[in-house]
Amino acid sequence: MTEHIKIEKSDGILTLTMARADKKNALSNVMYGALADAIEGAETDKSVRVLVIRGEGDMFTAGNDVGEFAAIATGAFQGERHVGRFLQSLAHSSRPIVAAVQGRAVGVGTTMLLHCDLVVLAENALLTTPFVNLALVPEAASSLLMPLRIGYARAFEMFALGEAVDAKSALAWGIANRVVPLDRLDAEAQALAQRLAKQPAGAVSTTKRLMRNPELLMAQIKTESEQFAARLKTMEAREAFTAFAERRPPDFLKLAAS
Ligand code: COA
């Protein structure tokens, strides 16, 4: 349990809210755990027909807690990590998932959208996947899903240069279903969720299962996770996390090319 994930259920819709606005909804290990528990729990809760994911405050999420990345890299973080279970729950969810995104969606904030079934963006949404900027690699099967969704050229630019994608482009490229004014974001996401909730649930989940392949996604996540874990321990990553903590740009040129 964490106060940083709020969970509400009404009319067949389970709404999961990232609620750590003072840290831009940066996702901590406990937050991943709470999200995973809720998404896994929904699988066996017959009263849940649709999931909605949203974030409090001015942005959807600043992505993984960078302080925790640094703690993992130095070995200071011990214990069970829940991010894998969160990704697994997303990849396996039979319930349709609607996302409501305002402001920035960084890292996993963007890659989780590829596992959502309807994505509503506020006009100010800005999607970034700066894994390489942090000396890391794409995760959440995004190294497979992103090029499939938007094409290799755009995906590589997003990943390798950390290029931001605005709401208009995200809509045009097929990452999102709708772009709405910020003050209509939640209403639009809830309206779509309500429409989905009224559909025959068995046909919706079977359609989703036909369109997605959890086994393939999990195999990609495993391969990515191995590379991700190895990259976390590199000098490049140490420089990236130290630079974040010191609020300065990283200097990768002092490190040799491998
Ligand atoms: N992990 C941990 N803390 C984070 C965070 C993250 N991913 N993103 C933001 N925060 C914290 C900041 O350290 C700051 O904490 P403080 O008030 O104690 O100093 C607070 O949230 C507000 O962030 P700030 O950077 O002041 O907000 P901003 O609006 O100027 O910038 C971002 C927002 C998202 C552009 C910027 O915070 C950022 O680049 N964050 C890192 C994103 C990232 O690399 N995520 C991992 C992707 S793989």
Oligomeric description of these chains: single chain
Give the bound compounds.
coenzyme A
Tally of structural domains: 1
Largest sheet: 6 strands, mixed
- In helices, the fraction of residues equals 40-55%
Unreliable spans are: none
Output the helix-strand order: EEHEHHEEHEEHHEHEHHHH
Which strands sit side by side, in order, in the main sheet? Answer: 1-2-3-4-6-9
Number of helices: 11
Q: How many strand elements?
A: 9
Q: State which percent range the strand residues make up.
A: 15-25%
| First-residue to last-residue Cα separation | 42 Å
Indicate the CATH architecture: Alpha-Beta Complex
Basic shape = globular
Any idea what the CATH superfamily is called?
Answer: 2-enoyl-CoA Hydratase, Chain A, domain 1
List the helices and strands and how they pair.
Blueprint: E1 5-10, E2 13-18, H1 29-43, E3 50-55, H2 66-74, H3 83-92, E4 97-101, E5 104-106, H4 108-111, E6 118-122, E7 126-128, H5 142-150, H6 152-161, E8 165-166, H7 167-173, E9 178-180, H8 185-198, H9 201-211, H10 214-232, H11 235-245
Parallel strand pairs: 2-3, 3-4, 4-6, 5-7, 6-9
Antiparallel strand pairs: 1-2, 7-8
Helix pairs in contact: 1-3, 2-11, 3-10, 5-6
Task: Tell me what you see in this structure.
- By secondary structure, the chain is an alpha/beta fold.
- It has one domain (5-183, 199-207): 2-enoyl-CoA Hydratase, Chain A, domain 1 (Alpha-Beta Complex), CATH 3.90.226.10.
- It is built from eleven helices and nine strands.
- The protein has helices spanning 29-43, 66-74, 83-92, 108-111, 142-150, 152-161, 167-173, 185-198, 201-211, 214-232, 235-245, and strands at 5-10, 13-18, 50-55, 97-101, 104-106, 118-122, 126-128, 165-166, 178-180.
- The chain has a six-stranded mixed beta sheet, with helices on both faces.
- β1 (5-10) and β2 form a beta hairpin.
- α2 (66-74) crosses α11 (235-245) and α3 packs antiparallel against α10 (214-232).
- The chain is globular.
- The N and C termini lie far apart (42 Å).
- The mean pLDDT is 96.
- Bound molecules: coenzyme A.
- Coenzyme A binds at residues 23-24, 26, 62-67, 104, 106-107, 130-131, 134.
